[in-house]
Amino acid sequence: MRKPNIRLLVTDLDGTIMGHRDDRQHYAEFKALIDELRRDRQLRWIVTTGRHYGGYRSYTSSLERAGIYPDLLVTARNRVFGRHGKGYRVKPAYTAQVMAAVMLGHVRGRRTLKQMHHHLSNNVQGVRRVLQLPDRFTLRFATLEAATESMRWIRQRIRDLPTLKAQQVERELSVVQIACRKGNAVRVLSARLGVSRDEILTIGDSRTDRCFLDRRVAFHTGCPLNADDETREIVHNAKGHLSTKFSMAGSIDVIRATLDGTVSSEIPPVPEDMPRRRRTGGGGSHTRSRDSHHLKRSYILGGAIAAITLVVFASFGVLPFSELIMKPVHLLFRLFSGIFSLFS
Questions:
Q1: Could you tell me where in the chain the CATH 3.90.1150 domains are found?
Q2: How would you class 202 by CB atoms within 10 Å of its CB: exposed for 0-12, middle for 13-18, buried for 19 or more?
Q3: How far is CA 141 from the centre of its chain?
Q4: Can you tell me the distance from the alpha carbon of 43 to that of 199, in angstroms, rounded to the nearest whole number?
Q5: Is the pTM of this model over 0.85?
Q6: Backbone angles phi, psi at 207, to 5 degrees
Q7: Contact 140, 172 (CB under 8 A)
Q8: Where in the chain is the domain with CATH 3.40.50.1000?
Q9: Is the pLDDT of residue 279 over 50?
Q10: Which end of the chain has fewer CB within 10 Å, C or N?
Q11: 104-154 pLDDT, tens per residue?
């Protein structure tokens, strides 16, 4: 088996890099491996997480003390950060592009879903609708041959749409739209970094990671032993590496096996001492409160900047309805002038 040239590593955080009691003893090995790949292959490491920025920083403080940090970070609400000094700095262009890709991917997925349902219902003889919802449909065909041929047609239509997942069970076909925030982020950032699909390795362990474990997003995939059953099945079908180790040790195993060409796609048995899964995106009530406060400040600051920009442009008369926009501003100035005159 030809050894791949991995230039982009994309991992989840909870349960993939952190979350097991033995993770700390693997910090030095993980850091040495990432540093070696950065030096020898110019590898970039991206962490995608459901946590907000504040929750991520507090949760990964032990990683940072050990000198372990990603080159790019994608947090909740598709915000993209780049490593800067001892912290991170938001990357507005990357963030805007990821947000647009997520939104457009959702819209395109819904439209394609509707078009495929309409085409199959009206052009295949003997087809019967079992279920139709905005985000999914199920059809039953008269013959197994018709179902198989229709599945072949569907796979062609969705080959560039990781937001859609198709499944065939005998004469029934189902197509479902899935959340693909992380998958869209990987596609956007890999394009910006000039990395092709066969140079990407993605590692995840849970439902929110399934989209970027799709071969339409990354050719090389893997998961640790603590991954849930459906994630393990997805990695198995994608011919990725299913590790027999937990969390960070499992991620190290996936990276080494992929680079060495010793990938094992066999699903390992689940041990009796499987560690309890932690909540993704949660770090206790204190962390959630801090995340919420950080998010509110971001919204307030963004709203204030947008309002000031609007008023500045309206004051020069360059916007439509500039006079209408300036009316409440003039009223506010008159109110303040009246108040000041009372106390002067």
A1: 98-177
A2: buried
A3: 35
A4: 10
A5: no
A6: -55, -40
A7: yes
A8: 8-90+181-260
A9: no
A10: C
A11: 999 999 999 999 999 999 999 989 999 999 999 999 999 999 999 999 999
Q: Report helix, strand or coil for 282.
A: coil
HEC readout, 178-229: CCCHHHHHHHHHHHHHCCCHHHEEEECCCHHHCCCCCCCCCCEEEECCCCCH
| Burial category of 134 from C-beta neighbours within 10 Å (exposed 0-12, middle 13-18, buried 19 and up) | exposed
Using DSSP, state whether 128 is helix, strand or coil.
strand
Task: List all residues 6 or more positions away from 232 whose beta carbon is below 8 Å from its beta carbon.
Answer: 223, 242, 267
CB atoms within 10 A of CB 282: 15
Q: Which helix (H) or strand (E) holds 9?
A: strand 8-11
Residue 2 has a CB neighbour count (10 Å cut-off) of 5
What tens digit of pLDDT does each residue of 79-93 get? 999 999 889 999 999
Average pLDDT over residues 53-71: 93
Residue 279 amino acid letter: R
3-state DSSP assignment of residue 14: strand
Taking only the tens place, the pLDDT of each residue in 239-254 is: 999 999 999 999 999 9
Cβ–Cβ < 8 Å for 264, 254:
no
Task: Work out the burial of residue 240: count CB atoms within 10 Å of its CB; fewer than 13 is exposed, 13-18 middle, 19 or more buried.
Answer: buried
Measure Cα distances from 143 to 76, 120, 173, 175 in Å. 45, 14, 12, 18
CATH fold of the domain at 98-177: Aspartate Aminotransferase, domain 1 (3.90.1150)
Q: What's domain 8-90+181-260's superfamily in CATH? A: HAD superfamily/HAD-like (3.40.50.1000)
